[in-house]
Amino acid sequence: MIYLFVDRKSQLVPKFRQYDVDGDGYITLEEASNILQSPPFSFPPSRVTLLLRNFDRDGNGRLDIEEFAGFYAEAKAT
Predict the structure, then answer these.
(1) Is the domain defined by 2-77 classed in CATH 1.10.238.10?
(2) Which of 23, 53, 67, 73 sits most deeply, having the most CB atoms within 10 A of its CB?
(3) How far apart are the C-alpha atoms of 3 and 48, rounded to whole Å?
(4) Secondary structure string (H, E, C) spanning 56-70
């Protein structure tokens, strides 16, 4: 089970880096909005904010790679 998480996480690193525009190691609300308001996603800002809150486990207003993994999977599933 841990192997699957590590493998999925390593596959998301390039995607995470692509979206982490400022390269600080986090996806901010602004960066998350850019992701989900662009194709193939078309989420309204309220949905982006809700997703960010749901997956921002430490409540710092941004997503690290582990939090991003859940966020991105949910966005793709929706």
Answers:
(1) yes
(2) 67
(3) 29
(4) CCCCCCEECHHHHHH
- Sorted by sequence, the CB contacts under 8 Å of residue 65 that are 6+ apart come out as 9, 12, 13, 16, 25
Q: What distance in Å separates the CA atoms of residue 59 and residue 17, rounded to the nearest whole number?
A: 21
Question: Rounded to whole angstroms, how far apart are CA atoms 9 and 47?
Answer: 24
Domain ranges of the chain: 2-77
Mean pLDDT of the 30-59 span? 85
Please state at what angle helix 65-77 crosses helix 29-36, rounded to 10 degrees: 30
The CA-CA-CA angle for residues 24, 28, 31, to 5°, reads 100
Per-chain mean pLDDT for the chain: 82
The identity of residue 69, as a single letter, is: A
